[in-house]
Design goal:
Blueprint: H1 2-16, H2 20-23, H3 26-46, H4 57-70, H5 73-89, H6 94-97
Length: 99
Amino acid sequence: MGVQTTVNTEKKSGINTRGWVDKISSKGWVAISLIVAIIFWTILSFIPVTSRSFPNIIVTTESISTMINRGVFWRDIAMYLASKKCMKWHLNLYATCHL
């Protein structure tokens, strides 16, 4: 009987207390995910086999700022989204799918 009492006490205390995972807010999880993604990205940028596909964050931010200064960044994003829309709806009209 002493063992059953101990097991019941452990089950009750497990239900009443929150785990450390539940204590982290949704914004905290977003921050953790972002940090882990940047770390993973940085590791991939140093491996010779993957460095061409995953340049480091400094090179990427410089490239984005160059594209914004040239005025092609938002146009490229708009064209990409338009092409996805056309692919999703299977539109074959040239005038509708091209900006």
